[in-house]
Specification:
Blueprint: H1 2-12, E1 17-18, E2 27-29, E3 37-39, E4 58-59, E5 62-66, H2 71-74, H3 108-115, E6 121-125, H4 127-141, H5 147-162
Parallel strand pairs: 1-4, 5-6
Antiparallel strand pairs: 2-3
């Protein structure tokens, strides 16, 4: 989970900047500065191997949630029983087609991770975007996935649209291409 990955990253590399995800490969951009940015999603913790010692990493933790059920960005915590279980349905929840994403409560582990401030950004994705990306993956890449896999891909594509173009010429970074 992002919560576990964020805690491990902070413990292992306290110098890493984790500002307030999906399941994808690492990608490198500069985000408008000279500092390289290596995007690590959910527990891809080995992606920094082979980077020069003088290269400072900026790790971003990106979460995504359905546009129809913006629980995390609502700012409203889940009401909990003394056991920690949800006491009622979250007020920001509405049904959405992205199966496996966002039940009608914020999971405790997610709430804990949000409280630690390890999330950089939350990207909203619609069911239509998830379905379109799932169809495109099947049609163009031969990858069969459901709406949630398509929604994950749609989130990654939204993130890529915002990233500045960077030309990688160093052969040491071939794994990023």
């Amino acid at each position: 989970t992002f919560h576990g990955a964020g805690k491990v990253l902070k413990a292992a590399r306290p110098d890493i900047k984790v500002a307030p995800d999906s399941h994808s490969r690492a990608s490198r951009t500069t985000h408008g500065s000279n500092m390289p940015h290596v995007q690590l999603d959910y527990g891809c913790l080995q992606c920094d191997e082979g980077l020069p010692d003088d290269m400072q990493l900026l790790i971003s933790v990106i979460l995504s949630e359905p546009a129809l059920a913006p629980l995390l960005t609502s700012g409203v915590p889940t009401t909990r029983k003394p056991s920690g279980a949800p006491a009622e349905s979250h007020p920001a929840f509405t049904p959405h087609p992205i199966q496996g994403w966002t039940p009608d409560f914020i999971p405790k582990v997610t709430e804990d991770g949000m409280a630690q401030g390890i999330v950089d950004e939350i990207i909203h994705v619609t069911g239509d975007e998830g379905m379109a990306a799932a169809h495109a993956l099947a049609k163009q890449e031969g990858i069969f996935t459901g709406i949630s896999g398509g929604a994950t891909m749609a989130t990654a594509l939204k993130l890529c649209e915002k990233a500045p173009k960077v030309e990688l010429t160093d052969p040491n970074f071939h794994w990023l291409l």
